Every structure is written in C-alpha cells, then in structure tokens.
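Q: Structure for this?
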Amino acid sequence: MSEQIDELIKQDYEAGFVTDIESETLPPGLNEEVIRFISARKDEPEWLLEWRLNAYRQWLTMTEPDWAHVSYPDIDFNAISYYSAPKSMEDKPKSLDEVDPELLATYEKLGIPLHEQEMLAGVAVDAVFDSVSVATTFREKLEEAGVIFCPISEAVKTHPDLVRQHLGSVVPVSDNYYSALNCAVFSDGSFVYIPKGVRCPMELSTYFRINEAKTGQFERTLIVADEGSEVSYLEGCTAPMRDENQLHAAVVELVALDNARIKYSTVQNWYPGDQDGRGGIYNFVTKRGVAHTNAHISWTQVETGSAITMKYPSCILKGDNSVGEFYSVALSNNHQQADTGTKMVHIGRNTRSTIVSKGISAGQGSNSYRGMVRMNPGAENARNHTQCDSLLIGDQCGAHTFPYIEGKNPTATIEHEATTSRVSGDQLFLCQQRGLDAEKAVAMIVNGFCKEVFRELPMEFAVEAGKLLEISLEGAVG
Amino acid sequence: MDFEQLAVAPAASPVWLQDFHAASRSALVGVPWPDRKTEAWRNTSLRPLTDESFNDSTMTGSSDPSEYRIDDLNSRDVVFVDGQYKPELSDETPSNVNVVKLADASETEAQLIRSSLGTIVPVSQHFAQLNGSRLNDGIMLRIRGVVSQPIRIVWQSNSHGSLNHRLLVLMEPGSQATLIEHFCGIGRAFTNSVSEFELAENSHLHHYRLHLEHEAAIHVGGCHARLSANASLSGFHLGTGSPLKRLDVTVNHAGAGADSRMVGAYLPKTKQRIDYHICAEHSAPHCTSESTFRGIVADEARAVFNGRIHIHPGARETEATLDNKNLLTSYKAQVHTKPELEIYNDDVACAHGATVSQLSEESLHYLRSRGLGPDAAYRMLNFAFINELLDGASEPPLAEYLRTRLQNWFEQEAP
C-alpha cells in the first residue's frame, strides 16, 4: 500500500499557477511612510490614516504570540511588501468587459463563476485580486433591497459613518499582534450592511487570492446585520504555488444587532506547501462576531490549505438569548500545522453555543483544537455543548486538543467531549470487501466523519468542500 | 521572588545529597517566578505564598495523634511532624518494607536512591526542583513482596513554618502494597511536598493522597509515578481547599502493558483555591490510563483542573480516558477546567469529557417527591456525587472514614 501512498501523495496543487499581470507593488518593508502611501493610494479620509498609524504604533510595542502548537521560522516583517495592485486597475473598469481578460481567465481556471455567475445559484462575487477589488456584481439587485456590499475602501468613502462606527468595534486595534498589523496595513476587503428587517436576497460571496510573490494579504471584512436582518456570507480561498512562505493576516468582524442572523462560511484552500513542507501560506486570521439580543451567529469552516493556520472564529454572546455556533473541519496533511478552534464568551442570559470540531491529521501533519468557553457571572441558564473529534491517518501525525473551560455561573451548563481515533483496519476492510479501493474507502469514512459540519455549509460549498477534502487526502491512506 | 534565591541547600549533608542539591538548583537557574502569563499558573495566583512570611522557629514538632486516627484501618504508620521523621510515633514496618531516612542512607542505599530520586518528577516541575535543592529530611520506602497491611505516611504540620517533604517509594518487581499519604495538622504552614513512586515490573500499588490539612495551610506539591512493564497504579486523591493549594500528579507509563487508574475529588469553599494538574504520559505500547476527577465548588471558591493525556510516538495501542465533572453551588464560585490531549500516534483510542453545571432540578425534584426536604435532598446529591468515587476504594475502613468526613462537610454547607 505504501507505493500507492507515495504515488498519490505527489498529487499536484491544482490551483498553482501564476497570473502574468503587471502589478504595481510597493518594495518590501514596513514603516509609517508605507502606511501613509497605502492610505494615500486609497484616497482615505484623515481619520482612517490616523487609525492606521495608531495601530502601527501599538503593533510596534507588541510581541508575536508563541502559545500556539505550531513552529515556523521567524517572520521578517520588513521582507514583506504591503501593497500590490494589478496595474491595469489604474483606471477602474466600468463593466466586466473592461476587466483585464487574463485576470478573468485566472478566475475561470479556479472555477469562480464571474461570467457565468448569473446562471450559477445567484451568487454575487466580490473578487479580490491581491489587494484591490476587481469587479463587484449584482450590485443593483442588492441595492434594491438596500443591502450594501462593496469593497471596504469604497465604503469608507460612501458610508463613512457606518464604517467608522463599527470598524474595530468587535476586534479592537490592539486585540492581538496580527490584528494590530492588519489594522495598520489592511489593503482591502468587503463591507456588508443589511438594513433593518431585510433578508439578503442572495448569498454573498468573496474570493481572496494571493498572487504577487512576497506580498502579504491583509484583508478586512466587516459585516453589519441590522435589527431583524439575515445574511449568509461565503468566503473561499485559493492561492498559486510559491516557494516562499506568505503571510495572510486578515480580520473579519461581524456585528449582529438584535434579532439578526449572520452565517459565515469559509472554504480555505490556500497553498499548503509541498510534501517536504517548503512554501505555503501562513494563515493568521482574527475572526470574531458580536451577537446582540436574540441574534444568531454561525461560523462554518473547512480548512484544507495553508502551511500554518492559527485561526479562532469566535462569538461574543452579549445579548440575552443570543446563539453562537461553530462548525469546523480542519485537515492537515504532509507538514501542515493547524492550531484552530473557537471562543464562545457567554455574557447574556439564556445564551447558547454549539461547537463541533473535526480535526483530521495525515502524513506528518499536526492538528490542534484550541477553544475557550467562558460563562460570565451574568450568563444565567446559558448552555454550551462542545464536541471535538480527531481522526489520525498514519503514525507520524499529531492530533491535540486544548479546551479552556471557565464556569462562573452555577445555572450555566458546559459540556465538553473529545475523542481521538484512527480509521480502523476493520472499517477499511469492510469497505474493501464490498469492492471499494482503499482510497475511496478512506474518502467515504472521512466524509462520514465530517458530515455534521458539511451539513451546515451552503450547498455549493458543501460539494466543493467534499471534493477538496478528497483531493487533499489522496495518498494519505496507510 | 526568584526560584534560584530560594534554593538554599541545608548544611551538613552527605556528599551524594549535596550533588543532588546542586543538580536541582541548576535546573532553576534563570527560571522566572510564575505569573499569570505562565501557562501552568494562569488561573492560580501565588500571592498567598509570596505575601506571607513563614517562620521556621515556630516549629515545635509536637503532635496530636488523635488527629489522624482512622478507626479499624490497622495501618502501619510512618509519622512526620513539621517535616521531621518521628520514629517514636511511627509503627514498626513489616519486614519486607524498608524505611530509610535519606540523610542516613548507606552507600548501597544511596546508590539505589540516586537512580530514582528526582528522575521521576518532570524537570519542568520547578517547585519540585526547589524541593530537591533544599532536601534534608526525606525518606525512602523500599517494598518487596506482598504487603498486606496498608502503610500510611502521616504528614502532620502544626506550625507556621516552611516545610519540605520528600518521599521516594521503590516497588520491587512483583510487589504489592497499599500506601496512604495523609496530610493533616493544625498549622498554617507552607508545604512543598514531592512524592516519587518507582513501580518495577509487575508491581501493584494502591495509592491514596489525602489533603485534609488546616484550611489556612498553603500547599504546592505533587506526586509522580513511573510504571515499568505490566505495573499497575491505582490512585485516589482528595483535596480540600486553602488560600493556595496546587497539586501536580503525573503518571508515566514507561513500560509496555502498564496500567493506571486515577480518581480524585476536590472540595474548595469560602474563598479557597485548589488546583489539580494531572498528566498521563504514555511512552510505551499497550498501556491504559483512566482518570476521573470531580469537584464541588462552593461560596466564592475557585477550582482549577488541568488534565492532560500525552501520547508519545511509538506508544501503540494506547487506551486513555479522562473525565472531569464539576458542580458549582454558588454564584461566586468559579471553575477553570482544561482537559488536554496531545497525541503523536494513530494507533490509539482516547477520549475526554468535562462538564460544569449545578445539580439538576430533576434530581432534586425526584428526592423531594420522596419526602426529603430541600436541604437534605441537596446534601444527599452532593454527597452522592463524590461518594460514587469512594465505592472503588480498596480499604473499606478508609472509605468509611472519608464518608463521615464528607457527610460533615456537606452538613456545614447549606444551599
């Protein structure tokens, strides 16, 4: 079987190609001048520049976190370029026809429905190519409903009050090392506002893509769901093959006001590095949502990419009766390292949270679940249920669980359970006996293992996620 | 405060012990004093220890044997009072149990001691290294064959001094014994205790560690076991709270087929703190470990539980489970629990679970519908929650003694 493994493990990264577009890239390095340059390029108001500079000054006083169960060489933050824009964007295209055809071809290779999107499930795509939004579609239909969905650099100008009110309200500037860095140099990202009582007429989607070599990507997403509104947001990632490690430090903030619902789904497929652990993306992302009274925030993620992942989508359950959910599948194969999980902070009464985390380790991968559930003294009758399961494939991988559970209210209930096991010989034998080859059998077993999470994904994503997992796992069978 | 500063070796020790002091001390060079940012101490403050000074001159060594009397236990006692070994209060031990004062060890005994002492407790246990650097009056127990009577080490502290307890137990191949560590006393001392257990092939040890000392006594310490092939350890831990009580328990399954079962309960109340850090290390194949810890946290108390299962590469066919349940009985009570798994091998079956809640309304209702008053129902359920753990105790008189203490404990505490 080991020959089979070797053969299959050599599976190439399907999204690994480089688009040849002239880019305007800032030379590597970080100082106040760079921040002033980024801000000036984007024609930002004075307050935002000040906000960035303040974040940068705070960042300088902070130290890199070292508590995660991952190891990687020191990052030289002065070797990264903090701004890159495709040159043909100098004059903004008026319609899709004016977009650089090569750019569109890139997305087509990735299967992003930019041209065929009308036919495909009514998904509006705000495609981010390196740092500048390329094209935003379905704007009119959304505008009809009063939904604002635009690049954040544009929202700063068109809806400054909304942005200023909520930007940094969920993830404060000095929250952590990478969020402070993001505040200082964020390139672009998406802004969503759903007005009171509106159910967003379509699922919103954005694709991130790191293209230019040695450029970090510092996305910033802000979603505000006003009272009684509802939105489902999809995020997908792929990146071309590179030898150097690339840093991705995004910040996502969700604000769910009273009775609002936000569903945020991610399929993350950044380049994971080759089978010897060279290259790959460092994915150090801060994602957090605040749920007000009766609000509902749900995070669903499927993580198959990145060399190193440190990511903890969290919910602050501030309002009474608010609900937080976290469904995650994280896979680490070859030399991938993932330290991921969630935080559920119960502040309001009758708040509820559910955590379902499925970790799969194969090859020499290391997969850690790190989660925190805190019941504050005021979290009367709050409930949490956590289930985190790990599946090990191969005897050189690692699966770890580090849950922090804090109970400060006697009426609150916390339940945590975790299991670790492997794909057993018996299971494999049973499937093979019925005519499946080992590869298919493992894919089926893993799919079953992840079913609870896939069920939470929007349909288009569920299909992609299943396929992605299968591709990522090929060859890992022992 | 600094670890290195505190590492003051006692005068006039044998040469081998001086070497041991130096080795322990060298493990503390440059080690910072733990604060809230130290992961192992993030929820337990050392302030009660650093804020107070402990006066060794108050140590009288006088003892009250009635305080640790357990009816019908029929144990062979080895008694320490204020850190000093008291042969006059101790029983004669059976012929297959050697009791050796570390400072009095013969050359061959010293050799035996050196091969185990300090090698079982992890180097990262800085308070244990501190204990080693100040080691003066410890003992070694060497057990051969089957010892039918339970052996009890009584650690009584009646003063306000700083105590340094050390115990080394060597279980010879095939030996069997029951060992009770009974901490008691009326002193408000600071105790740094380290117990190490070396279990040779096929040996079996029942170990009880009872922390029943004065509610103002500060205790930082723990017990650490190394299990050779097919050795088995069954441990029972009971801890009442104090301003600072931190206990580290590690079991290293170093030989194939080793097996451990650990049961524990912690009961802090008022403004007390208690912190159990337990760890099952699996470095050999075919081992099993099972840990069950429960806590009832009352008033403004805070409990910390950190349970770790660490499976090294090569520890094939390991089965390990950990279970931690907590009851909060007051709005100001807090519990921090962290069940951890760290696994580097795919041929394992591991599971852990943790819960935090209050007594269920249904259970209370059930008992009340059977005619019990609310207080009685409440007490009965609290008692039952812990009593379940005592059911597996190998020494019925000891279990009975603890039940009575628990009953009294819950009597005092009204809902």
